Amino acid sequence: MASSSRLKPREKGKITARVNIKGEEGFISSVVRVLSNDPATPVVTLFLEAMIEDTTDTPSVTKK
Questions:
Q1: How far is 50 from 28, CA to CA, in rounded Å?
Q2: Phi-psi region of 26 (alpha: psi -120 to 50; beta: other; left: phi over 0)
Q3: How far apart are CA 44 and CA 51, in angstroms?
Q4: Backbone dihedral angles phi then psi of residue 46, each to the nearest 5 degrees
Q5: Of 58, 63, 33, 36, which Cα lies nearest the Cα of 48?
Q6: CB atoms within 10 A of CB 40
Q7: 46-62: buried (b, 16+ CB within 10 Å) or exposed (e) per residue?
Q8: Which of 11, 32, 38, 55 could in theory staple to 7 by disulfide, Cβ–Cβ 3.0 to 4.6 A?
């Protein structure tokens, strides 16, 4: 998701990434590219990895 938020030099921010895992199983990976106006680092690439377990045999729990 693109953002128009601007950070001052050395100011910290937060990045939220969502990955749709519906229908996925096993090892998945995704890439997020963060664009910057910093000439030394114009792009930072984040690599996301996860192991999705099959939960179809797991009984569901419902709260009452």
A1: 5
A2: left
A3: 24
A4: -105, 130
A5: 33
A6: 5
A7: eeeeeeeeeeeeeeeee
A8: 11
Per-residue pLDDT tens digits of the chain, which is 64 residues long: 555 677 888 888 888 888 888 888 999 999 999 988 889 999 999 999 999 987 666 665 555 5
Length of the chain: 64
- Token pair 């096993």 is found at 26
pTM for the model: 0.62
Question: Which pLDDT score, from 0 to 100, does residue 7 have?
Answer: 81
Q: 3-class SS at 26?
A: strand
Burial of residue 34, with CB atoms counted within 10 A of its CB: 0-12 exposed, 13-18 middle, 19 or more buried: middle
